[in-house]
Amino acid sequence: MGGFGYSYNTIKDKVRFHRARAHHHDERARFHEDRAVEWERILSQIQQLQRIEQRKSVPKKTELPQPVRTKSSENRNDFAREVLRTHAKEGVLPGEVRRLANQQGFPAPSNYPYKLFTLLVKQGKAKKDTVGRYYPTVTE
User: Which pTM does this prediction carry?
Assistant: First the structure.
């Protein structure tokens, strides 16, 4: 008998028992880790499919013919109105106006066409469709 009230064999049995439990828990942990990895793989596949579907649903950029800077378009707002008139049939997106203005040398912060078109809509001179394209409502 040991000095702690347990026999040598009892202590060896407890060591064996706890090692067996530890081994059991290691196996369970590996099982659950494998399941977590499998679910992460499935989630990754779903996210990849979502990205593919999103790319399909985004309308293709149409290349607009670039209006030439004229005397009537001396500032960027006049230029944007001219772009709007030029593309009255197919409409124009604010980002396209900003890109064209930059190409023509007008300083065009990112919010500039949005602010102008919002003002034109309030004045009744433009309308916006569900896609975000703007169309003139009156011809000047």
Answer: 0.47
